[in-house]
């Protein structure tokens, strides 16, 4: 089952020539989920040949512009391209009012409905579920209310062993995949353990955008397979990070290590850094399995 994320933007508040503001596209079983939508996100999708029309769910962490200024443009383009199916947007209180004002004063009447879901900034909660994913909020510590998101695959069913598939009538596939033993009309018992194998373990991806390092969100991300965590500054600027409620690369590595995650992606880099390799090197001194969230790169989760 496909479970991967493509980086659309990895910079922080102000733009630089080679890095866009925050945005990621999660692909789960060929369904698209947009995470944050900084300025230029739809252009990045065109650049990397990702079809915005396939997005049905958008998750916005907070109301700083580098995380949502691209949203009105994306929604407008989908309208102009004839979209009619609903769009579900999960985000902070206030985002719906902002969107409605922009559409009001541009006299834009969307061809499709927007279903808005407000996210609490007080406690972690499940906000979405379908046959592929469960999504929960991660309560972060930023200057304004901010929620990260935890994307967890739903458990997969067992798989029929290919070499034994001819021994199993089609009518019994479903029960065996669910781990149930079945009895054939002739009285023969087919044990699930003999005809199926364990599925791939369900994986999870945690997206932590703007935040201080704060142990209060650790329980939500503990043991996740891949963690994206902001790393705005090198640790020599930890005082600046604390002042602006951000994290250093060293601290991002500490978060990953403390919470026993398997892989760390770092991003949300300050525009002061023309090269981001030093941020990677700093994070790796604490947590070796770290990679940079480089735009256009797709990570298997």
Summarize the structure.
The chain has 301 residues and is an alpha/beta fold. 22% of the residues lie in helices and 27% in strands.
Describe the structure.
This protein is α/β, with parallel strands linked by helices and 301 residues long. The protein folds into two domains: 255 residues, Metallo-beta-lactamase, Chain A, CATH 3.60.15.10; 39 residues, no CATH class. It contains nine helices and 18 strands. Strands 6-5-4-3-2-1-18 form a seven-stranded mixed β-sheet. A hairpin with a 3-residue loop joins strand 7 and strand 8. Helix 8 runs parallel beside helix 9. The mean pLDDT is 94.
List keywords for this structure.
301 residues, alpha/beta, Metallo-beta-lactamase, Chain A, 2 domains, seven-stranded mixed β-sheet, 18 strands, globular
Q: Could you tell me the strand content as a percent range?
A: 25-35%
- Main sheet, how many strands, which sense, barrel? 7 strands, mixed
Name the poorly predicted regions: none
Order of helices and strands: EEEHEHEHEEEEEHEEHEEHEHHEHEE
Within the largest sheet, what's the order of strands? 6-5-4-3-2-1-18
What is Rg?
22 Å
- Overall strand count: 18
- The total count of helices amounts to 9
- Helix and strand content put the structural class at alpha/beta
Full CATH superfamily name of the largest domain: Ribonuclease Z/Hydroxyacylglutathione hydrolase-like
Report mean pLDDT, rounded to a whole number: 94
Distance between the termini: 11 Å
**Number of structural units classed as domains:** 2
Shape: globular
**CATH architect. name of the largest domain:** 4-Layer Sandwich
CATH domain class of the largest domain:
Alpha Beta
Helix content: 10-25%
CATH overall fold name of the largest domain: Metallo-beta-lactamase, Chain A
């Amino acid at each position: 089952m496909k479970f991967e994320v493509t980086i659309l933007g990895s910079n922080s508040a102000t733009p630089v020539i080679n890095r866009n503001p925050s945005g990621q596209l999660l692909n789960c079983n060929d369904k698209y989920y947009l995470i944050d939508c900084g300025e230029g996100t739809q252009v990045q999708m065109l650049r990397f040949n990702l079809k915005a029309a396939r997005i049905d769910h958008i998750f916005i962490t907070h109301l700083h512009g580098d995380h949502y200024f691209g949203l009105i443009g994306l929604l407008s383009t989908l309208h102009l391209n004839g979209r009619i199916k609903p769009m579900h947007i999960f985000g902070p209180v206030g985002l719906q009012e902002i969107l409605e004002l922009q559409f009001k004063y541009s006299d834009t009447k969307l061809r499709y409905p927007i279903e808005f879901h407000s996210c609490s900034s007080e406690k972690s909660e499940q906000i979405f579920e379908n046959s592929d994913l469960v999504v929960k909020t991660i309560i972060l510590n930023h200057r304004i209310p901010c929620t990260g998101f935890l994307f967890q695959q739903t458990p997969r069913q067992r798989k029929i062993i290919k070499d034994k598939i001819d021994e199993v009538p089609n009518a019994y596939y479903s029960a065996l995949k669910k781990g149930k033993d079945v009895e054939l009309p002739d009285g023969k018992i087919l044990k699930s353990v003999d005809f199926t194998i364990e599925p791939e373990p369900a994986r999870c991806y945690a997206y932590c955008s703007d935040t201080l390092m704060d142990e209060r969100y650790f329980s939500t991300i503990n043991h996740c397979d891949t963690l994206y965590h902001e790393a705005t500054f090198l640790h020599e600027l930890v005082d600046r990070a604390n002042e602006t409620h951000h994290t250093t690369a060293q601290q991002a590595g500490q978060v990953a290590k403390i919470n026993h995650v398997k892989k760390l992606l770092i991003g949300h880099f300050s525009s002061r850094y023309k090269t981001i390799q030093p941020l990677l090197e700093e994070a790796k001194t604490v947590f070796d399995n770290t990679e940079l969230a480089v735009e256009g790169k797709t990570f298997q989760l």
